Amino acid sequence: MARFYKGIGVGTFLHRTDLCVTGIAARMPAAPYSVSALMHHIARVTTTSCCISLTRSYGVAAWYARNGRAISAPGAPGHVYEIEIPDPPPLATIRVYDPVLEVSSQYPNPLTPSFYHHDGDYEFLLGVVAPSLMKTFLQRQAVHPPGSAATARTPNLSIELETIVRALRDAEILVEGNIPPAWVLQRHDAV
Amino acid sequence: MPDAHEIETNSVNLDGTVLAYGPVRFVRAEWRGQPTPRLVVLRYAIEGRAGEAPLGVRLDLDKRAFLDEIADIGDLAPQVNGEIRGHAEDISDAVVKEWRASVLSRR
């Protein structure tokens, strides 16, 4: 068994529903799964996907629960659901993906010309983590060896790296398939 | 977990910005549970209607993307939501700029 959490904010799609009773369905359960779909779900907020986002972190779930389409309050709380998924899951109905593993497994050979790494300085990642708050780190030029005659540019930033960073921020895993109500153990109020 | 009373709700007034798209004007960003704005609720007013809409739209400032769409503007919704999505980066920057200004003004 593995324990996960889902934060539901006030006024959002699932807030009026008790997921302990209904379980959880993806927005587009018939859409095909692919690593590209996973990356767009996480890094581009494509919510019309076949996957459901869960987190390992109660704190992250509570953060989403408090910041719904209205701020949570004692009389109108957001909710955090505790979800337990059996190990192994019933593969006929559900698959569970670790986004970091899914993306990095696309690059098993570090000697190939394609990679997910950036080529900026050691602070570049701070800009990727918080581009609005630390934009300056994204805007520095990539440094090249002397005499390389490389065109001046900012560092490489791939959707693969963005996906890894965003998934780590939210301690996120994706579930393909519907989560049955029996796996949704309880609901907590988050105010 | 911290007690509910220890968790602060923060907000930044956006009236000084020009964040208007069709009949929608963003008036305030709110967030709860952390000191810096990362995931904010943008509250908005609709031209010709009194007060603010009862629900806002969430903007993830790290992903620079909206998590919700505005539905209460009838046939204009697809066009306005498309425009808002296209300006998510500019709107994120504007929220952070106003937040920084508000922090500096309190010092």
> How many H/I helices of chain B?
2
What is the first-to-last residue Cα distance of chain B? 30 Å
Global shape of chain B: globular
Low-confidence stretches of chain A: none
**Percentage beta strand of chain A:** 15-25%
Fraction in beta strands of chain B? 25-35%
Shape of chain A: globular
How many strands, which pairing sense, and closed or not: the largest β-sheet of chain B? Answer: 6 strands, antiparallel
Structural class of chain B: alpha+beta
Account of the 3D structure:
The complex is a heterodimer of chains A (191) and B (107). Chain A is of the alpha+beta class. Chain A has a domain at 2-98 and 172-190. Chain A has seven helices and six strands, in the order E-H-H-E-H-E-E-H-H-H-H-E-E. Chain B has one domain (4-106). Chain B has helices spanning 77-86, 88-106, and strands at 9-13, 20-21, 24-32, 39-46, 57-60, 65-66. In chain B, strands 1, 2, 3, 4, 5 and 6 form a six-stranded antiparallel beta sheet that branches. Chains A and B meet through helix 3 of A and strand 3, strand 4, strand 5, strand 6 and helix 2 of B.
List keywords for this structure.
heterodimer, A: 191 residues, alpha+beta, 18% strand, B: 107 residues, six-stranded antiparallel sheet, 2 helices
Task: Draw up the topology in text.
The complex is a heterodimer of chains A (191) and B (107).
Chain A: E1 2-8, H1 19-22, H2 35-43, E2 51-55, H3 58-66, E3 78-85, E4 95-97, H4 99-104, H5 124-129, H6 136-139, H7 159-169, E5 172-176, E6 184-190
Antiparallel strand pairs in A: 1-3, 2-5, 3-6, 4-5
Chain B: E1 9-13, E2 20-21, E3 24-32, E4 39-46, E5 57-60, E6 65-66, H1 77-86, H2 88-106
Antiparallel strand pairs in B: 1-3, 2-3, 3-4, 4-5, 5-6
